[in-house]
User: Fold these one by one.
Assistant:
Number 1:
Amino acid sequence: MTTHAVYDEIRSGIDRLNDFKMSTRDLSEPRKRIAHADRVHFIGCGSSYWTGVIGQYASFQRGIDATAYAASEYLFAGPPITEETVVVAYSQSGETSETVTAARRAKEKGAFVIGITNTDDSSLGSVADVVLVTPAGTEKAVLATKTVDAALMLTFSLLESKYSEYTPSELQRMCRNVVEQDFQTAVAVLAEAKTLYTLGQGIEYGLAGEAATKFGEGALLHTTALPTPEISHGPIANAAGEPALVIATQESEASLTSEVVSKLCDAGVTTIVLRRPTNDYGGDISIELPSRSPDHPIVPLKILQSLTYKTAVKKGYNPDDPPELSKHIEWSALG
Ligand SMILES: N[C@@H]1[C@@H](O)[C@H](O)[C@@H](COP(=O)(O)O)O[C@@H]1O
């Protein structure tokens, strides 16, 4: 029996994958704007920022010049914005101050603003030129899970990414299968950890960031997300005895993964590798995607959400009640 809202939402996100096409009805104008833009800026806070990082890499795959920014950086120390800039602003609530203010300022400078949110009626909605409402609905938990699923699906659809070619039912079957696994060996290690490095390249660096956010919020781990080889350029000096989670599920994985994993093991880092059954990179613990799993980021994302949840429960934490967190933040200085 499920006792936590976050676990319900992890599963409900999978059910909703079927609905996301409802939100793609009016993608033609935003798609046209992206096609003619000089550059695309993805902005957001927390999980919404990391969704933008995934959007950035999905853009690169389509040859689009894109950059993801934490909305506060974009607002206070951001790049040049012109009339040829398209801004994709993510906010579950549609009310996070940095995101709404950054979107408003970008629009004042002539940018075309696409808002991606869960609600029809929001401050972001009133600022954006086009609002794409995800089918996620209201997230019951503080930890965003089904929101990230839905925002990703919408982003892939918006970008006409190769990931938008999968049918939702195909993805749903695989995701249901993976979230029910117990990941016992990995959870035992993660539940004993004080710190966690999450590593990935490209789209999977975005997943690593989202995983770091979730493990921090839900399992109260001190987390750092890095592009995989970056751990060798400093952090490895002080990582022995703690785990690293390497996300390496893409079909065309860069060849440095095996070397980095081997370096981590030699340095005494407990290395957990999330991978396809056909790609063995070594490491202490493997979490394998099911065979014939689609090459789609939603599958590892659901595993990472489930791992976070199971780690939190194993530690005796209530992942529905993370200390110091609220679902979104409104700063009085930006009111
Ligand atoms: N703790 C929450 C995060 O979980 C959330 O991702 C972020 C952005 O919220 P929103 O997506 O509503 O803009 O706000 C807070 O920091």
Number 2:
Amino acid sequence: MPVYDLVIIGGGPAGLSAGIYGARAKLKTVILEKNVVGGQAFTTREIVNYPGFFSGTTGPDLMATMADHARGFGTEIIKEEVVDVELEGEEKIIKTKRGNRYYARAVIIATGSQPRSLNIPGERELRGKGVSYCATCDAEFYEDLPVVVVGNGDAAIEEAMYITKYASKVTVIVIHDEGIVDCNRASAEKAFKNEKIEFVWNSVVIEIKGKNELEAVVVKNLKTGKLTEIEASGIFFYVGMVPATKFLKGKVAMDDQGYIITNDMMETSVDGVYAAGDARVKYLRQVITAASDGAVAAVAAERYLAAKEEFRENVLTADKPVVLAFWHPAQEESLTAVAIMEKAVNETGGKVKLVKVDMSRRKMIAQKYGITKTPAALLVKEGKVCRELSCYLDSESIKAQLNCHER
Ligand SMILES: Cc1cc2nc3c(=O)[nH]c(=O)nc-3n(C[C@H](O)[C@H](O)[C@H](O)COP(=O)(O)OP(=O)(O)OC[C@H]3O[C@@H](n4cnc5c(N)ncnc54)[C@H](O)[C@@H]3O)c2cc1C
């Protein structure tokens, strides 16, 4: 497998947007997508809140446009499920279910999230035989048939309305008291007026019945304890999402729910590894914020790779010894030390050069050389450290240290 500048795991809006920005910046970019390109957004029929589409668009249309855009700039999109990663080294290794290995100089994790299952009897057995998590994919199979929807957030209510285009009746099971739903008001009001929708309040689904196909759903009223069997041919679950990050456990820092922790540059705890979209800890999980994250992650990755290349040219393959002077903008003492170091280097008449390293931005370089505090300075020759320099001397004494003896 060739070495890619950028491997993006996941081809939803975050991954596609990262692909657009990455390939446009001339990075050799590949997106590995295990399923349908477009992610969750592909599974929603109507998208009315993505900027530029006042009259709305469909998830599949919007995602196809994004995928064409990414491919247009040269991003490869390959159907592969990533099952393991080695992220620590300079060259990251991405391993797939088919046994392939992709090598990357930087990685963006854009694996999003997947529907939560309730793990109730019958749910796993009847998956694909009446149990579904995607109305866009499956609603049309229920023409004139009764269907149950579980949940009361935006996705549940909006998809319930979409299903009424096909189903004879849609029963929505809501855990809350009558009239209380967790979705936006406009959708709730429309759903309450929809004659094909019946709400069942204070209730949860406890069992799904059927042999080879779904026949009925058992619902428990949480206030009375009463069990009711609702005849149905299909059930759609919208009871939340879980991040698709299981294969990354122990590889990048996550919160206790498995969402990846990043800063506002989408950097994870591992150098050269970024996370974008629904898979990361964030406030709002939508197509627009996923696309935005993808753009930020790709630009951050591009700058990281450029900085690495610049470091290679300026330091590792330099034709003269280099003083690496580590400083931190919040530490005045380090600024003074670097200024004295610079004076000493200038007085060598070009025999030695100085490269300043801002520790607040170039953590990777500091880590590589084991530097934990500033000021600090190293003399590097032919890519190897030959000595540590004392930063607390005058420029004359520093100049005397600028002879290379291998460390
Ligand atoms: C029913 C529904 C309706 C919605 N409606 C709207 C709406 O109207 N407006 C809106 O803005 N947002 C909506 N959203 C939310 C929006 O779809 C998501 O916020 C957005 O898709 C997140 O994008 P993402 O790229 O981070 O992740 P995802 O869209 O989840 O994409 C992640 C991709 O990564 C792939 N993947 C996961 N693991 C691996 C792996 N190991 N190897 C390879 N590939 C992998 C997945 O197959 C998937 O394609 C809706 C969501 C749902 C479920």
